[in-house]
Specification:
- 6% of the residues lie in helices and 58% in strands.
- The longest helix is centred in the first third of the chain and has 13 residues.
- An 8-stranded antiparallel beta barrel has the order 1-3-4-7-8-10-11-14.
- By secondary structure, the chain is mainly beta.
Length: 222
């Protein structure tokens, strides 16, 4: 009996241990994320005769897939703070007119939306650990390269507001592996809005971009 207990003890020491989160832990993740705008445009609500846009016209923003890095710090084993350090994401913008009257590519815009959320981890002591989070993002619009010449008009550059604050909510899970490694899947809803103006300051739209950000990747606890 004593030899059997000794063998069990040795096996438990030799087997790799799954590391679960504890207060004071840091987690670094790398993910591939798809940024899919759920835009709401009010282009047709403004006076846009210069653009040739009708009452049903709107701005459309395409999606993009980018690498993303984030850092989490565990205040307790259940509560963590996550800071997303995504690289800038580039999106093409176009006018989609009512009944196809206007369909013009305006160019592209780069967004940098660092996001901070507080998370509640439901099963930090288990291999499968789902979580919910809420926080805010600070979006900086960079290198806007938008220009319109619809209907033969040369309107020059189109500008967007440079800095915006917004809310963010998330849901996801970690699969805890041996050696402190983990697999992660995460979905965020981020609220981003901006005013769109002509170079002379004329406002032509209030654009809600509001992307869904869906990511999958891996991480390491320290």
């Amino acid at each position: 009996m004593q030899q059997k207990r000794l063998a069990v003890l040795l096996m438990s020491l030799l087997l790799p241990m799954t590391a679960f989160a504890e207060a004071g832990d840091w987690v670094v993740r790398a993910r591939a994320v798809n940024v899919n705008p759920d835009e709401h445009s009010k282009l047709g609500s403004y006076t846009n005769s210069l653009l040739g846009a009708g009452a049903g016209s709107k701005l459309e923003v395409d999606g993009n897939t980018i690498p993303e890095f984030d850092i989490s710090y565990y205040l307790t084993k259940n509560i963590a703070l996550e800071l997303v350090l995504a690289v800038g994401t580039r999106h093409d913008v176009k006018v989609n007119g009512a009944n196809g009257v206007v369909d013009e590519n305006l160019g592209s815009v780069n967004l940098l939306p660092p996001t901070l959320t507080a998370q509640w981890h439901f099963r930090p002591d288990q291999t499968f650990d789902p979580y919910l989070g809420a926080g805010f993002n600070y979006t900086r619009f960079m290198d806007s390269n938008l220009k319109s010449g619809a209907s033969g008009n040369n309107l020059g550059n189109i500008n967007v507001d440079r800095n915006r604050w917004g809310l963010a909510f998330q849901a996801g899970f970690d699969i805890n592996l041996d050696g402190g490694w983990l697999i992660n899947a995460d979905v965020k809803k981020i609220w981003i809005d901006t005013d769109v103006k002509l170079a002379n300051g004329t406002k032509i739209d209030h654009l809600d971009i509001d992307p869904w950000v869906i990511g999958i990747g891996f991480g390491k606890k320290f």
